[in-house]
Amino acid sequence: MSGLVLKLAPHERVLINGAVIENGERRSRLAIMTPNAHILRLRDAIHPDEVNTPVRRVCYICQLVLSGDVTAEDARLQLLRGIEQLSQALTDHHSRDQLTQATRAVLDSQHYQALKALRALLPREERLLAVREQ
Predict the structure, then answer these.
(1) Whether residue 25 sits in one domain with residue 55
(2) What are the Cα distances from residue 56, in Å, to 44, 98, 111?
(3) pTM of the predicted model, to two decimals?
(4) Angle at 31 between CA 25 and CA 32, to 5 degrees
(5) Residues 127, 67: one domain?
(6) Is residue 62 located within the same domain as residue 112?
(7) Of 11, 47, 75, 117, whose Cβ has the fewest other Cβ atoms within 10 Å?
(8) 112 and 66 share a domain?
(9) Calpha distance 37→106 (Å, rounded)
(10) Range of the domain at 23
C-alpha cells in the first residue's frame, strides 16, 4: 500500500480536498491513494487568530497548502524563507534536524511532512518565549 495513511481516533475530523470528514465510533485507518490530495487533520489546524509566533506563522502557511487555500508553488518561497529565518533563531541540534526535515519536505512537495516537522518545534518555541517574558 502506498500513499498517505491516516489513523483516526473516534469522531476525529479531517479535511480532504475541501470536505470535512468525521470518523465514526471506532478508530480507523484511511489510505489516501490520490497523489497531491489536500489533507489536513483538524486537530492539527491552527486558527488564524493563533498565528502569533514565528513557528506558528510558518506552520500556518503549510496548513494553507494542505487545505488547498494556497498552491504549493505560491507558498514554496515563503515557506523556505520562513524556515531559514527560524534556523537563525533555533540553533539547537533537535531544532536543526526538524528544520532540515521541513526544508526537504517542502522541496519534495510533501507539505504534511513539513507541517509535522515544524509542529515539533512549537513546544521549544513556547519555552523560549516563556523565558523571554520573565
Answers:
(1) no
(2) 11, 14, 15
(3) 0.86
(4) 115
(5) yes
(6) yes
(7) 47
(8) yes
(9) 15
(10) 4-41
Number of H helices, E strands in the chain: 5, 5
Cα-Cα-Cα-Cα dihedral sign, residues 122, 107, 89, 98: positive
- The amino acid at residue 86 is L
Count of the separate structural domains present in the chain: 2
Q: In the prediction, which pLDDT does 40 show?
A: 87
Q: Mean pLDDT over all residues of the chain?
A: 91
Listed in sequence order, the residues at least 6 apart from 60 whose beta carbon sits closer than 8 Å to its beta carbon are: 46, 48, 51
How would DSSP label each residue in 48-95? GGG--SHHHHHHHHHHHHHHTSS-HHHHHHHHHHHHHHHHHH--SHHH
Long-range contacts of 112-120 (CB under 8 A, 24+ apart): 112/4, 112/39, 112/66, 114/62, 114/79, 115/44, 115/59, 115/62, 115/63, 115/66, 118/55, 118/58, 118/59, 118/62, 118/83, 119/44, 119/59, 120/94
Say yes or no to pLDDT of 1 above 60: no
